[in-house]
Write a structure and sequence with these properties.
The structure holds two protein chains of two kinds.
Chain A: E1 6-7, H1 19-42, H2 50-66, H3 69-74, H4 83-86, H5 96-126, H6 133-139, H7 147-180, H8 192-220, H9 226-256, H10 262-272, H11 274-298, H12 305-336, E2 342-343, H13 357-377, H14 382-388
Antiparallel strand pairs in A: 1-2
Helix pairs in contact in A: 1-2, 1-7, 1-8, 1-12, 2-5, 2-13, 5-6, 5-7, 7-8, 8-9, 8-12, 9-11, 9-12, 10-11, 11-12
Chain B: H1 23-32, H2 35-43, H3 48-55, E1 71-76, H4 85-94, E2 103-111, E3 116-119, E4 137-146, H5 154-158, E5 164-166, E6 172-174, H6 184-188, E7 195-196, E8 203-204, H7 210-213, H8 220-224, E9 230-234, H9 241-248, E10 264-267
Parallel strand pairs in B: 1-10
Antiparallel strand pairs in B: 1-9, 2-3, 2-4, 5-6, 7-8
Helix pairs in contact in B: 1-3
The chains are: A mainly alpha, B alpha+beta.
Chain lengths: ~400, ~270
């Protein structure tokens, strides 16, 4: 590297926001994305997404319940974390976290309760003894499942799901805003940031549900609905194109307007982030799934269901990696570049440290464990619901 | 036993001469007269006098009133010799952990063609060794850096719990008992002046040695500087030399385009300095 690009401010040697802060937007992105997928059915009434409508809601909840874990693990004083809600400083964007998180949690739990209410009442009345107890509690004493009551439920569900879309977008757009509104960091500071975060969140949510839906179908021994996969693949392709376009737009603008920071951002992307940005985010995570999904969408009528399933499955895995790489390149990349705009530093994540790779993997595994139990308690798929009744 | 002020009942309950006793005396006496209040405050584990003084915005145990001051800091780049005494003094005075800096010195070496080498080995705490840059040096200088105590500070703005705040005297401070250690302020500071102390796990920065300036002393770095490159003073004091410099000299601030309005001013500023 050029010698004049080697000066970082002495305090900039430390990367204060490490893997945990990469995990946080990644997890909230999956929360928002999964919710958007659920709204395809619950708000827009698209029948082809009916097989995953309920499952998407549970996925969103499982990830939402774990969304604060990386933050708590990151904070220097997690015991003071609730101060953000009790004594917020409203000039800080971060102070909005408590309000956005709780309001979305309330909307989501209410919607899930209403969507599953008929099942809950059914289990509460058919199961015996200790098995019925959790369901009896979950009914909240309401056993009315008459057609009229269910009709009212559906009306409220549509309203909640409709409120849920902007709530989920705010919850995640806010995360993008946290970065996008830091004027000290030219790699973060752009109004595009919340939008890029949102679009990539939808990409990750759809991708996760394609993967989970297909895996669940294999383990449950059921057919994968081709209408559902076909529709999801289309949306995935659409949102992927939007996301990558925006990501490139940000960089092209910086470069074209000869932004003063481009002098350091260009070497950042081509040296320290060469692997995670160029190889992973742009080639492996964007170009390849773009081609895979293009084949899936454009050659749809020639595809055997197994081929369609496999193509969307692999494209989804690559896109989940892409979105993670994007979070990594934003969060870590922004700190690799010193605010002196004169130098880049190194970042070597540790495996066992408090904010290391292992804790990050454990935190990421937790929502899947939660989801497993949620699916056991509230079966979201038709087959299990019919068996249970 | 302190003498209590006489009860002013003769003129309808109004206090006739408010200046007859000092505020401190009054507070001490008043609180001694109210054992129930003292008991309550005692139960809250706060000394009554301290609580009353804090409520008035004063620094407990002193007669310091922040509203009477507006501090400023001036760095004269032409006078700095890069000895590192200021960095050392700061580290000793404030128990700054190794490899973290409340203040540091940068060396700029500029060539005829405009090439620039900037360095700050260990914050300049041990001074600077001679170097061979590999080009014809046209100018070279040292720039001491510290928190700019910005009037429009992004670090306090982003603190989610209000642990970071600006005092009436212009000092930007961190309440380490309130800080949650999220690090958002570290990211928001464009000057790299903040860090998370690995021992306290809270945000830390230059306070202008607040424990010293509230007693009328100068910050440790200013005291330690052998050439007078660092100046500290009160803009509210008409006879303070810093007021003359800030109001009459050609001064610059770091990254003026960020519009953070620093209260740390530079004399002899070069365009390469960021």
């Amino acid at each position: 590297m050029l010698p004049y690009l080697q000066y970082t401010f002495p305090n900039d040697i430390h990367i204060h926001w490490s893997i945990m802060i990469v995990m946080y937007p990644y997890i909230t992105g999956l929360v928002a994305g999964a919710f958007i997928v659920s709204s395809f059915y619950h708000v827009f009434q698209k029948k082809e997404y009916q097989p995953i409508g309920r499952f998407a809601l549970l996925t969103s909840l499982a990830f939402l319940l774990c969304a604060t874990l990386p933050l708590l693990n990151h904070l220097g004083h997690p015991e003071r974390a609730l101060n953000i809600m009790i004594t917020p400083n409203f000039s800080s964007a971060m102070a909005g976290f408590g309000i956005l998180y709780t309001s979305y949690l309330v909307v989501l739990i209410l919607e899930i309760w209403l969507v599953f209410r008929k099942d809950i009442v059914h289990f509460a009345t058919t199961y015996k003894g200790i098995r019925a107890l959790p369901y009896r509690i979950l009914t909240l004493g309401v056993y009315d499942v008459s057609d009229e009551a269910i009709k009212t439920d559906h009306k409220v569900i549509t309203i909640l799901a409709t409120i849920g879309i902007p709530s989920a977008c705010l919850l995640h757009g806010y995360v993008g805003f946290l970065f996008g509104a830091v004027k000290a960091n030219p790699w973060w500071s752009t109004p595009l940031m919340p939008i890029i975060f949102l679009f990539s969140a939808v990409v990750s949510g759809i991708a996760l549900l394609i993967i989970l839906y297909q895996l669940m179908a294999i383990f449950r021994g059921t057919e994968v609905s081709q209408d559902c996969v076909r529709g999801l693949a289309r949306w995935l392709w659409y949102f992927q194109i939007q996301t990558v376009t925006l990501e490139l737009l940000e960089i092209i603008t910086l470069s074209y307007e000869r932004n003063e920071a481009w002098e350091i951002i260009a070497p950042l992307l081509t040296t320290k982030l060469a692997f995670s940005f160029i190889s992973v985010q742009m080639v492996l995570g964007s170009l390849i799934p773009f081609i895979l999904l293009m084949v899936t969408v454009l050659l749809d009528k020639y595809l055997h269901p197994k081929v369609r399933n496999s193509l969307t499955f692999f494209a989804s895995i690559l896109l989940l990696i892409q979105v993670f790489a994007m979070r990594w390149n934003v969060v870590i990349g922004g700190q690799i570049m010193s605010k002196s705009l004169r130098g880049l530093r190194d970042f070597h994540p540790e495996f066992l440290a408090k904010e290391g790779i292992l804790p990050a993997m454990l935190i990421f595994a937790l929502p899947f464990v939660l989801l497993y139990f949620l699916v056991k308690v509230l079966p979201p798929f038709e087959k299990e619901r019919q068996l249970a009744s | 036993m302190l003498k209590l002020p006489s009860a002013p009942q003769s003129n309808g309950g109004k206090i006739e001469d408010e200046d007859a006793i000092s505020r401190r005396e009054f507070l001490t006496s008043a609180l001694k007269m109210a054992p129930s209040v003292a008991l309550f405050v005692g139960l809250m584990r706060v000394s009554p006098l301290k609580a009353a003084e804090q409520a008035l915005g004063m620094i407990p145990g002193t007669n310091y009133d922040p509203s009477e001051h507006l501090f400023a800091y001036v760095v004269d780049i032409n006078k700095c010799i890069g000895c590192g005494m200021c960095v050392k003094a700061c580290a000793l005075e404030n128990k700054v952990p190794d490899h973290f800096f409340r203040t540091w010195i940068e060396r700029y070496v500029v060539s005829e063609k405009g090439e620039v080498i900037v360095e700050s080995p260990d914050g300049g705490i041990n001074g600077f060794k001679p170097m061979t840059p590999g080009f014809n040096v046209s100018k070279s200088y040292f720039v001491p850096k510290l928190c700019n105590h910005c009037a429009n500070t992004p670090c306090s703005q982003v603190c989610p719990v209000g642990a970071s705040y600006t005092n009436q005297d212009g000092a930007v401070l961190v309440d380490s008992k309130r800080c949650i250690g999220c690090g958002y302020c570290v990211q928001a500071c464009p000057f790299g002046s903040r860090f998370i102390n690995p021992l306290t796990r809270t945000a830390e920065k230059c306070t202008w040695c607040y424990h010293r300036i509230t007693k009328g002393l100068k910050p440790a770095c200013v005291e330690a500087c052998p050439t007078g490159a660092r100046l500290f003073g009160d803009m509210n004091n008409e006879r303070d030399p810093i007021r003359k410099i800030v109001t009459e000299e050609h001064i610059a601030v770091l990254q003026p385009e960020k519009l953070t309005k620093p209260r740390c001013y530079y004399l002899g500023f070069d365009k390469e300095t960021r």
